[in-house]
Structures are given as structure tokens and as C-alpha cells.
Amino acid sequence: MTRTLIRWFCVTAVTTGLATAEPFKEDWVLYKHAERYSAFPSLTKGPADRLWVGFGWNTTRSHYGKAAGGETGGIALHSPDGGATWHQSGQDEQYQGRPTQLGHFVLSDGTMLSVGPRMHEVLPGEKKDELSKRGIAVKEWPDGHISASYRVLMRRKPPGSDSWESSYPEFPPFASMGGFGRGCVLADDTILKPVYGRFTVDDPAVRSWVLRSVDGGASWELIDIAYDGVHNFNEAELLNLPDGRVLAMIRSESGGPLHETGFLWQTESDDSGKTWSPAKRTDVWGIRRTFSRPPTETCLAPTATAVRPMAFGHLFRAMRVGHGTPNTR
What we know:
Blueprint: E1 23-32, E2 37-45, E3 51-58, E4 72-79, E5 87-88, E6 105-106, E7 112-117, E8 121-123, H1 128-133, E9 139-140, E10 146-148, E11 152-157, E12 165-167, E13 176-178, E14 184-185, E15 191-198, E16 207-213, E17 221-226, E18 233-240, E19 246-252, E20 263-269, E21 280-285, E22 290-292, E23 305-312, E24 315-323
Antiparallel strand pairs: 1-24, 2-3, 3-4, 4-5, 6-7, 7-11, 8-10, 9-10, 11-12, 13-15, 14-15, 15-16, 16-17, 18-19, 19-20, 20-21, 22-23, 23-24
């Protein structure tokens, strides 16, 4: 079944320091289900304007997923034409699965890798004291089980291999960690993956980090990209710009003055993610953006766009924002 799009436009802008044209924004309504709470979508762009969107759902209206109980599941959508039409996995014959390499970091030697925190891992109540003594944030649930987001899973597929290796890399101690946003691989094979969390349960605010590896995932650093002790910085998206800089757009929904609530913050790195400029609030309201750079290697300049999938409650939408003339097919 082909999804019909509901679109509307308003004016917005993204600060990049690059050339600008008339800004635009359009929304696509793709999925509705009255009994499912959908959240935390991802978007992947492939060749020839092909797009893939995936997100999870549950029946408890909770961001804790399986830890909160109820039914859980996932939805996968594919657009072969840049968003004009969409097809759902398991329902539409036209659906085509996302190529494996598009969902992972791919290094110059062909190694494929994914890395990120195991969020809200469901654990028996007996582990509460052990984790608490280690300074890990623990959530207790009415039936006695607990959940925690305290370790990072890495999956790696060497070139020429048919199997994946799984491991838990070592990091400095932290109380909790979440992670959305795909991240990027730089020209020198440096891997950057955005995450967020707290070093201690008493941290006054949430900070945004990147997981950084320069040796193909053999070792990792945990680097602050936004923290001021006031604003709660969390989900981020990274974009490797043509001039070598890395741009991060960061969500912040609480902390600080009320007039700053809900706006994205921006920071940049010009040394392959080692250090980052002080985060500054932009005039763009919303949550994490998923950036899409056109084949010309320009970014957020004429005809370029940033695409943001959004899933809240019963309604799933995808938003496209950028500068130039939007595709109005």
C-alpha cells in the first residue's frame, strides 16, 4: 500500500556559515496507529534518492521500551523516490530492504561496524545493589525487575568475513548513556558516534558526547561536545562537511531559561572530533535532525536539505528542511 503524503510549508533556517537561499520546510505524514506509541526514528539515505526510515513502538506510551512492559515492535519504511511514496516492510510488495552497509560505519578497508549504548537494558532486581555501588543509574519497576543503560555494544564485521563479532568496549565510568544519531566516518577512518548521558547520578545536567575511535574500533574515547551544567543536551546528529569540519546539531529540551527550551544547539570540530567549539543555541526549534547531503557535496546550501523523521504517539511524520526549492512531487 502506497502512503499518501500530507504536506505543509513554513519558514525555518539552519545556521551553517554557507551560502543561503530561500528556506523551506515540509511535513510528510506516513504512519498512524491509535494503539501504538512510536518514538526514536532513524533515517538513512541511499543512492538515487532512496530513503529508509525505521522506528520502534510500544503499547505503554513509554520511552523505556521492553523495560516498561506491554507489547513492543518496529516499523520499517522505504521510499524509492526521495519521499514522494513510501512502502512498509511486511505489507507492501514494493518494499525493498536497506542494504547492510548503509546501516553501519564502513571503513576504507571494507570493515563494517556499529556501536552504541544498550539503552534501558532489562535486568533482574538482584543486580540493583551491584550496579548502584558502581555509580550506575538504575530504574526500578513494579514487578521487581530493573533497567539500566550502562554499557556500550560494538558489532564488527571484518572484510571478507560472513560473521559479525560482538564486544563491549571499555570507557571511563558513567552513570547512564543514551544514543541516537548515526554518526560518521571521516576521510582518515576516524569514527564518530553521538551519544549522551551523565558521568554521575548527581550530575546537574545531561551532556552530549561522541564515541571516537581512530583505530577501527580497537579502542574508544568518550569526548564532551556540549555540557554547561545547566542545559540538558542529549540527542545529536553529525555531518562531515566538505571542508573537513564536523557539524553537530544537538537537542536540548529542558534546563536554562524558558525562552531557550526546545531549540537545537550547534557545535563544530575542525580536528577530526578531538575538540569542539562551545555549543551555541540556534533559532531552529525541534529534536534531532538527520542530515542529507546531495551528490554535489554541498551542504544546506541551494537545493540541499536536512531530513528529520519524527515519531510521537499515534502519528509518524517526516520533516524536510533546507534552502532552495523543495521537491513538490
